[in-house]
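Notebook entry, structure prediction.
Reason for the run: the old model in the group folder had no record of what sequence produced it. Starting over properly, with the input documented here first.
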Amino acid sequence: MDADKPRKNVVITGSTRGIGLEMARQFLSRGCCVTISGRGLELSPVTRKILDDFQDKYIYVPCNVQKKADLQNLWDVSSAKWGKIDIWINNAGQNTPHVFSWETEEDITRQVVETNITGMILGSQIAASGMLKQGSGAIYSMEGLGSNDMIQEKTIHYGMTKRALTYYMKGLAKELKGSGVIAGRLSPGMMLTDFITKDHEGKPAEVVTNENFRKVFNILADRPETVAAYLVPGMLSNKKNDAHIVWLTGFKAALRFMKAPFSKRKLI
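New structure, fully documented this time:
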């Protein structure tokens, strides 16, 4: 981050791995201070090793986003440490088993909804309340499959939550208009993460054995570090309410399909 630009303080839910962790690294490398959070009581040795170069620029706060008290504590600890919170990112997410809707167990159904919808709403409520008191701040939530109304069989619970997320964040932006606090959405496209390669139990995901899926995924998908390197500068420079920061645009997707016969990409 340039010396003449003020430091940004960032909170990211669900940031111990995947795109959340990569966004944390990108923010830290740009001189920001970051609060990393997840359900574990502490960071794993592997994650700590990844963040070795930034030991004085981040803290870890355990947080179950399904619990408003945990989210309030995440805000309170972070603001006490950094002074204020400039950017809050609702990134925590729960995947769904690759089965039909009626085959999904009740507990899993509740976990998906309570993490992806309730957790995102509660996080936004906490952040909006705190930022309105500050007089400034930005709230972002992570879109995903379903945000654009695309329906994929055996993932409709997850897709439904992401469609709801888009509606909520657009509505939140309207409610915050003129307040000094802005709300926006992050669209990462397809990524090589545990969400794709593993099921909700951490076992190899059935979907990656599908040849048609693998073909499309290898054309369109990217690694989390690539996506984070695009999303983070977009958030740091954005001043617009209801911003939609999109990595995999329609034009980019079309271009990749055109180049696919000549450029072999293999992620899975």
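Summary: The chain has a mean pLDDT of 91.
The old model has been moved to the deprecated folder.
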